[in-house]
Amino acid sequence: MTTARTKSLSGAAVPAVQRSPLTDALLNRRLWLTVLGWTVAVLIFFPIFWMVLTGFKTETEAIAEPSLIFSPTLESYAEVQQRAGYAKFALNSVVVAFGSTLLALLIAIPAAYSMAFLPTKRTKGTLLWMLSTKMLPPVGVLVPIYLLFRDTGLLDTRTGLIIVYTLMNLPIVVWMLYTFFKDMPKDILEAGRMDGASTLQEVLYLLLPLTLPGIASTGLLSVILSWNEAFWSLNLTSSNAAPLTAYIASFSSPEGLFWAKLSAASTMAIAPILVFGWLTQKQMVRGLTFGAVK
Amino acid sequence: MNKTRTSGRTIGGLRTLSLQAPAVSLLFLWMIVPLAMTVWFSLQRYNLLMPGMTGFAGLENYEYLFTDPALWSAMGTTLLMVSWVLVITVVGGTLLAVLFQQEFMGQGIARVLAISPFFVMPTVSALVWKNMMMHPANGVLSWVAELFGLPAVDWFSSLPLTSIVIIVAWQWLPFALLILLTAMQSLDEDQVEAARMDGAGPIAIFFFITLPHLKRAISVVIMIEMIFLLTIFAEIFVTTSGGPGLATTNLAYLIYIRALLDFDVGLASAGGVIAIILANIVAIFLVRMVAKNLES
C-alpha cells in the first residue's frame, strides 16, 4: 500500500487508464517543474553556451547585436591554431596535468594500500594530517616556492609545475584511493596471499584491476584539478612552460577584435575537462569533501 | 592460522612504514619547508630590489603591514567577497538541490548543464564574463538591459566587487549544488511521506526535514569554499588587477603585489603568515568534522 502510494506520488509513469484528478495534478506539477528546472539550468549554462557559439562567429559578428542566427565558421579556430604556439600551451597543459596525475597515483597507491589493508593506530591520524596539508593557502607559501624555484632553475619549467601539482593533489588522491580500496572485500586479497602472491603481485594482479573504476575517477579528478589550476601556473610560468590557463589569461589585455578568437581558444581549453567532469561527477564528491558527504 | 596472523602483523608494521614513506615524507617537506621559510622571511629585512639591505627585522614587517591601510582594505575586501559568495552559493545551492531532486523531463541533462561551470578553468570563466557577459558595449547583459530600456552598466568600473562576486559565485554555485544533491539522496523518503500525510506543506517539509538533513553537508560546503575563497586570485588577476584603486584587492592579491611586483619578500611573507593563520582557523573545524565522520 505505502510503496504503491510513494511511487505514484513521486511522479513515476502512471498508466493512462488510471487517470484521475490526482494524477492530472501530478502531471501538471511535473510540467511546471520541467519548465522551471530547465530555465534555471539554461541560465546557469548560458555563458558557456554563448562562448561556444561566439567561437564559431566572425569577429564582426561577435561584437554585433547578440544573435543566434549566423553562418558558422571555423575561421577563429584556424587563427588561434596558427597564432604563436597554441599547440605548445595545450601540450604543456596535457604534459603537466597527466604527468602530475601519474606521479601522484604512483606515490599514492602504495600508501593507500597500506592504509586500507594494513591499518595501524596511526592510520587515521596520518590521513587527517595529509588532509590538513591541503588547507595551507598557496598564497601563504608563494614567496618561498618562488625563490626556491628561481634558485633551482625550476621556474617556468614543466617539471616545476608537475612537482607542485603532484604535491597539491596528493592528499586528495590518497584519500580517494583509500576509500575505494576500503570498499573492496578483503577476502580476495587474502585468497591471493594464500596462493602465495607477493605484495607487488597482489597489488598488480588483484587490487588494481578490481578497483580500476575508482582509480580512473581519482585520476580524472586529479587531471581536472591540475588542468584548471590557475594560481601556481600564473605565478611560476611565463613563456616556456605556460599551460592553457596562463595562455587564456594573456587575452586579458585586449588587442583589436579578439572576442571570437578568445571564445575559440577557451572552448578548446575547457572542452575535454567538461567531458571528464560530467563523467566523474558522482565520485568527485567523495574526493572534494574527503568523504564527509555521502 | 594464528601464527601467520601474528607474523603478518609485525611484517605489516614494517611494510606500512615503507609503503607510506614516500607520500608522507614528500608531503611533510612540501608543508614544512615553505612554511618555515615564510615565517623566517617574514622576520627579515629582505627586498630583492635592495640587495644591500638585509638582516633580522624582528616584527618590523608585521608592524608595517598592520599600520598599512592597504592590509585592512584587503582584509575587508576578502571578507566581503567570501561572505557574499558564500551566501549566494549556499542559499542558491540548497534551493537548486531541492529543485533538481524532483523528477522532471530531461532532469539528468539539466543537472549536468547546471554543474558545468565548476569545471571551467577560472581564467576562462573570468574572461568570458568580462568580455561577453559584462562588456558595457557588446555584452549580453547590456543588451538585455537595453531591451528593458535600462542604461548599460559598466560593470568593472562602477561595480568592481559585485562583478567579481558574480563570477566567483557562478563558479562555486555548481559546487554547492553537486555536494548538496549528493546529500539529498540519503534523505529518508518515508519520513517525507509521513510528514506529508500528516498534512505538512512543502515549505514545512523543507524547513523541518530537508534543511536539518542537509545541515552537515552545508557546513562542509561552507568550510571547503571558505578555504578556497580566502585566496581568490586568477579571477582578479585577469579582470580588474585589484582595481580600481584597491577596490578588488583581496589578501591573496595584495601578497602577490608585494612579492612579485614590489619584490618585498619580507613584507609579502608576513602577509602570507596572516593568510595561513586565517585559513587554519577554518581548517581546524573542517578537519574535526571529517575526523568524526571517519570514526562512524
Automatic annotation (TrEMBL), chain A:
Its main location: membrane. Signal peptide: none annotated. It holds the Pfam family BPD_transp_1. Residues 90-280 form the ABC transmembrane type-1 domain. It is a multi-pass membrane protein. GO terms for cellular component: plasma membrane. It is found in: Cell membrane. The chain crosses the membrane at residues 31-53, 89-115, 127-149, 161-181, 202-227, 258-279. Coiled coil: none annotated. InterPro entries: BP-dep_ABC_trans_perm, MetI-like, MetI-like_sf. Belongs to the binding-protein-dependent transport system permease family. MalFG subfamily. This is Sorbitol/mannitol transport system permease protein.
UniProtKB/TrEMBL annotation, chain B:
It is a multi-pass membrane protein. The keyword Chaperone does not apply. Keywords: Cell membrane, Membrane, Transmembrane, Transmembrane helix, Transport. It comes from the Bacteria. Residues 75-286 form the ABC transmembrane type-1 domain. The chain crosses the membrane at residues 21-43, 70-100, 112-129, 161-182, 217-238, 267-287. Its main location: membrane. InterPro entries: MetI-like, MetI-like_sf. It is found in: Cell membrane. CDD domains: TM_PBP2. GO terms for biological process: transmembrane transport. Belongs to the binding-protein-dependent transport system permease family. PANTHER family: BLR7065 PROTEIN, INTEGRAL MEMBRANE SUGAR TRANSPORT PROTEIN. This is Sorbitol/mannitol transport system permease protein. It comes from Halomonas fontilapidosi.
